[in-house]
Specification:
about 90 residues; mainly alpha; globular
């Protein structure tokens, strides 16, 4: 993912709560340091995201996840997209 948050300004996201977008931006910044090949590290990261989202009362409707994912794909590399799919599948299973 690009290090800037240009994706957050996409007009398609105008109806998404800014707190949710800020949460996602922080999540993507933190995910850059996660070793994607290490399942234990990835699971630890995902579990910490789950706790962080609960602590901040952040949850996403399926429609929001799909919309955000489609917007993010416009600004992402194929590797970034694969990472997002793993993360979004975690939130969908909640």
């Amino acid at each position: 993912m690009e290090t800037n948050n240009k994706w957050m300004q996409d007009p398609e996201l105008k109806n998404i709560d800014r707190a949710k977008l800020d949460f996602l931006d922080k999540m993507f910044v933190q995910s850059a340091s996660v070793n994607k090949g290490n399942q234990k590290e990835m699971m630890s990261f995902l579990l910490s995201l789950g706790k962080l989202s609960r602590d901040n009362n952040i949850s996403f409707k399926n429609e929001e996840v799909e919309l955000i994912f489609s917007v993010l794909k416009k600004y992402s590399t194929p590797d970034d997209i694969a990472k997002m799919q793993k993360i979004s599948s975690f939130f969908r299973s909640r």
